[in-house]
Amino acid sequence: MAEQAKPDRDALLGELSALTATATSADGAVSLSVNTDGVLTRLRLTDAVSRMSPDEIADAVLRTYVEAQRDSAKRTGQLLAPLGSGGYLMDRLRWRVQFEPPTPSPAPAAPRREERTDAVLQDRSAEAPAVAPPPGPVADDDFYRQGPRMDQAW
Asked: Which of 4, 105, 118, 128 is CA-nearest to residue 55?
């Protein structure tokens, strides 16, 4: 019986580094990508989230994230299969494929308004008071002569 050749280490590491899994929610409001470790690398929300409650947005993001993680785990497992199917890493990949987040208890629905004024991502830059720019650079001698102080950084 011939022994199966092991994959090229550098090629395998390159494929694992480049692996990206992307998922989109059923309504298209949430799209995200994860890397081979299941770490979130991109998150995009469409205007559809403005018609959703915070709980609905959170649930859509979580469900979409789990979907992308499952795809990432399956593809990572396929890349690593020539190395064997045992061990901690493969157990973790199998766990990620089977993971199901807990179902949140439904919260009472908040009344929806046509125009929301309490939006978290609302542009309020025009409301900010004008702030004078900080004075020019301070010479080193002046800086050290003043001693320790706690200036607000912003």
From this structure: 105
CA-derived radius of gyration, the chain: 25
SS3 track for the chain: CCCCCCCCHHHHHHHHHHCEEEEECCCCCEEEEEECCCCEEEEEECHHHHHCCHHHHHHHHHHHHHHHHHHHHHHHHHHHHHHCCCCHHHHHHHHHHHCCCCCCCCCCCCCCCCCCCCCCCCCCHHHCCCCCCCCCCCCHHHHHHHCCCCCCCC
Which pairing describes strands 40-45 and 20-24: parallel, antiparallel, or unpaired?
unpaired
pTM: 0.59
Mean pLDDT in consecutive groups of 10 residues from the start of the chain, 154 residues: 65 88 95 93 95 93 93 89 78 80 63 58 71 68 65 57
Positive or negative torsion for Cα 133, 139, 145, 147: positive
Distance CA 42, CA 90 (A): 25
